[in-house]
Amino acid sequence: MQSIESKDQLRTQFETELRSNILPYWMDKTMDRQNGGFYGALTNLNQVHNEVERSAVLNSRILWTFSTAARLYQDEAYLSTAKWAMQALKQYFWDPKHEGIYWSVDAAGNPVNDRKHVYAQAFSIYGLSAYFQVTGDTEALQLAKRLFELIDQHTYDPQFGGNIECRARDWSRLEDMRLSSIDLNSSKSMNTMLHLLEACTALTGIWQDAKLSKRFEDLINLFTNTIIDPKSGHQLLFFDDQWRSLSKNISYGHDIETSWLLLEAAEVSGKPGIIEKAKANAVRMAQVVYDQSLQPDHSILYEAGPDGHKITDRHWWAHAEAVVGFYNAYEISKQDHFLQASTNVWNYIQDHFINRTDGDWFKLLREDGSPYLDHYKVSPWECPYHHARMCFEMIRRLAD
Fold first, then answer.
1. Rounded Cα–Cα distance for residues 273 and 289 (Å)
2. Whole-angstrom Cα distance, residue 208 to residue 203?
3. Residues in Cβ contact with 23 at an 8 Å cutoff, skipping those fewer than 6 apart
4. In 3-state terms, the chain is what percent helix, strand and coil (to 5)?
């Protein structure tokens, strides 16, 4: 059993990482003081690549991260960065003609990819909700509410439930709805639904609305009854309109992330039956990841193919989520192997992912733990949200 002293020591480690490395890096290195917003990409040596498009996902995740930090620490520097991100979201990413959030813009703020992917709308709701919580800015709340209404109006599937992945700029039908080049072109996906659930969890905390409550509970049930495979304990990843699975791939990273996010959503719902199911799923999913993905060096595998082939590169975000997911399973079950796994993955992160020379984290490692130095540290997908959130969660949980 973990002692109070070791809990305090761990909490200090997470707080130091958050406030002495992650947050300062993103404030000092990524803000574009000339054009506004944040640079499109930075290398591991902090060389700026401003020709890389700027994603709404990156901007909204920065908005969430610094709004959350400002609320936790009452720090004006964090609040100033959140305001910077808020201004960029409104000025560059909001579509004044058709409403909603563009997928990406260039350094001057011109749309590069103007599609309306639910994933980007969801993360914008997530960031706006956190910004409203710390500032009380009613414009942020109104934008978050409007995005929910747009998603519901244009992407909700009244026949089979859930939401269609993506629409064109004017919210019309779009043939290619892929989230990224490595994803299937499917009508619906686990990944997009997970972050829409996350957005609805945040929005429910600041806005009481009957339709939002209904969609929120439906999303929780969608994961419990459809997306999580009761046989394997993994999630199904891609679906057609009728929620028929289109892929046999496994995402260990998303499994461990969902294990705790689904419980967070269930607890916000306040319904005991939903909470108990989410707790059972959290422990089972964490156990499956523990059994199949946790390596002898305490790293986590990211994904496996339908043939059982496991991708051996180590991804930063999956490790951050594993620290929280395993600790969450320990809190529920009091099984010490989950506590040990959480601590061991955190130690692996400290030994391999944290870039102690140039700041923040390496985002991708080889099987032997060495970093891919040519992989961007900051990019449309490489952001502060996963590892900052790990710190926020562990600071809170270790203080309880």
1. 25
2. 8
3. 65, 66, 69, 78, 384, 388
4. 55, 10, 35
Edge to edge, the sheet with strand 54-55 lists: 54-55, 104-105, 111-113
What is the CATH classification number for the domain harbouring 21? 1.50.10.10
Which pLDDT value is given to residue 306?
87
Q: What is the pLDDT of residues 253-274, one digit of tens each?
A: 999 999 999 999 999 999 999 9
Q: What domain count does the chain have? A: 1
Which structural domain, as residue segments, surrounds residue 377? Answer: 4-399
The contacts found for 194-198 with CB under 8 angstroms, 24 or more apart, are 194/223, 194/254, 194/257, 194/258, 194/261, 195/119, 195/122, 195/123, 195/126, 196/118, 196/119, 196/122, 196/151, 196/163, 197/223, 197/261, 197/262, 197/265, 198/122, 198/126, 198/261, 198/265
Q: Coil, strand or helix: which one is 99? A: coil
How many CA atoms are closer than 13 Å to the CA of 152, on its beta-carbon side? 19
Report the SS3 class of residue 35: coil
Tell me how many degrees the CA angle 340-341-346 measures, rounded to the nearest 5: 100
d(CA 106, CA 348): 36
Cα angle: 183, vertex 143, 269; to 5 degrees: 70
Q: How far apart are CA 235 and CA 80, in angstroms?
A: 38
Here the tokens at position 388 are 């900052």
Cβ contact 288:304 at 8 Å: no
- Residue 148: count of CB within 10 angstroms of its CB: 23
Is the per-residue pLDDT at 308 higher than 90?
A: no
pTM of the model: 0.97
- Count, in order, helices (H) and strands (E) of the chain: 13, 12
Beta strands in 64-189, from DSSP E residues, in sequence order: 104-105, 111-113, 116-117, 166-167, 188-189
Helical (H) or strand (E) element with 2: none
In sequence order, the β-bridge partners of residue 31 are 38
What one-letter code names the amino acid at 265?
A
Percent of the chain residues topping a pLDDT of 70: 99
CA distance 297 to 312: 12
Distance of alpha carbon 123 from alpha carbon 147, whole angstroms: 10
Q: What pLDDT score was predicted for residue 266? A: 98
